[in-house]
Amino acid sequence: MADRTITVGGYSKTFSITGWRIGYSVAAARWAQAIGAMNDLLYVCAPTPLQAGVAVGIQELPPSFYQDMAKDFQAKRDRF
């Protein structure tokens, strides 16, 4: 499945930065090259400082940040 799977995600909800439009994709090399080429033609990259901010968040936030966020989302879902 790994050769046929493409995962696409974003950080807008995770870090409450909905206007930044910063995301990622994970795929086998042949798909990643095609995704990169299409991205270069169709989308404008987020400014470097915003990308750096997300990188710091990924590297420095403790696991409890994500665990608490999951609990909060579950509570909101259950309430709904």
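(ticket continues) Second input and output from the same batch:
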Amino acid sequence: MSKKLAFIGAGSMAEAIISGIVKAQILKKGKIVATNKSNRERLERLEQKYQIQPLMDKEAVILNTDIIILSTKPCDLKDAVESIKMYVKPNQLIISVIAGVSTEHISDLIGNDAPVVRAMPNTSATISHSATAISAGKYATDEHLGEAEELFNTIGTTTIVNEADMHTVTGISGSGPAYIYYLVEAMEKAAVDAGLDKSTAMDLITQTVVGAGEMLKQSGESAAELRKKITSPAGTTHAGIEVLEGHDFQQIIMECVQSARERSIELGNMD
């Protein structure tokens, strides 16, 4: 990719994407610039770690940039766009990775016909294993969507969805890694409480999670089918599953995803 990227906002999601891009070696050094509201130290740390260009001059950030990636907190979006909109040209692609915020809202803030693509990667982008969903805004063409897809394919897999589904995507793949980590925390605590060495427990749990993911990816079978295959009647797995069922585990996870989805909607309604 020969594009020049500008990150508006330099938080954890921006770093995850930058890290994935740098590891994939798809851009030459100097092709990534980043800015934020006022935290120069944060930009300097990113410069040292990834050799990006840190800039506070918003005009210099936008100048000659092909793709502008909005990666601020939702509450900072309006001020961030205000600081750059006078420099944004209609031929520059804007990609937003801000949870809950619609492409229409971003277009209204920008005030011109610049194409906007909405994306929801997750922090696994850091190791090039993000599950990213993207959707096109009003002015974005298939070509623009293709550019975004090419970019996010370097940090994992990319799926094109209708924008109406992005709130649900946020609750599943956007926040999903945190749910998995929370489950791992519980399994680790149970193992240690039962007397297993912490390091041994984590080795086993980590590979179990990785293996289960690969089975879902490669076997072609559903999660329910795979679960049933290892749940023998009156066996050890069955005993564990009974506890999960007794505590309405599936309902809890469904409510978890729904709550994240609703929060995404709330964030999108913030001025």
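Agent notes: The chain has a mean pLDDT of 93. The longest strand covers residues 130-136. Closing as not reproducible unless the customer responds.
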